[in-house]
Structure of Glucosamine-6-phosphate deaminase:
Amino acid sequence: MRIFVTKNYQELSYKAADIVEDYLKNSSAVLGLATGSTPMGLYRELISRYENNGLSFQNVQTINLDEYIGLDRNHLQSYHTFMRENFFSHIDIPSHQTHIPNGLAEPLDVECSRYEKLINEIGPPDVQVLGIGENGHIGFNEPGSKFSSETHVIQLASSTRKANARFFDSVDQVPTHAITMGIKSILKSRQILLLASGTKKAAAIKRLLDGGIDEKFPASALLQHSDVVLIADREAWSEVS
Ligand code: F6R
């Protein structure tokens, strides 16, 4: 694992954008993307480079990690909406080249197989951007998820629903289930770019680096991948001795 510790979130976002931009030199790059607060600075920086430095996404394909089950793609809190509002609608990527699981599909197991097939056909991603949950989840692979899992339906941990309640009016409105790329699907990516910002992530980063490989801590699966780059800001790094 290569590790960069940055002085703040802005520097973390620049560093992550530099890495992603390198892949975009190959115009047909495949990017694995995440939602949540952590990659927002990265997306802002990539948008700025598109607007000011001629960075283009015209031939890029994107594959997102996950989507809530039961939310229409136009729901304010769906990950389709998140990606459209925070990234896709600000760059020149054709929408048919962006891929996110369909949380309203029926039956869901067919959607999971379709998505895994898509990852294998279009991908695997050259680089997969990941955040980390306070409980060590990656994608929505909660503690106890099998490292051999491919795209599947998962029941969200109550701690995850609470953490994500900040985007909804109340925790009751946070969906109980999601479709997520599995840990095996994530590990297919050629490179993994794990981003961690803020003191809330400090314990998870310490656990990742000190705790060994264990399905109770999903992010520890990344220790089995040969090309992981961790970018943590000083706050997220603060518990590492
Ligand atoms: C998002 C995702 C999640 C988040 C994680 C951290 O697509 O799959 O694993 O990366 O919950 O979320 P934030 O960045 O909001 O702290």
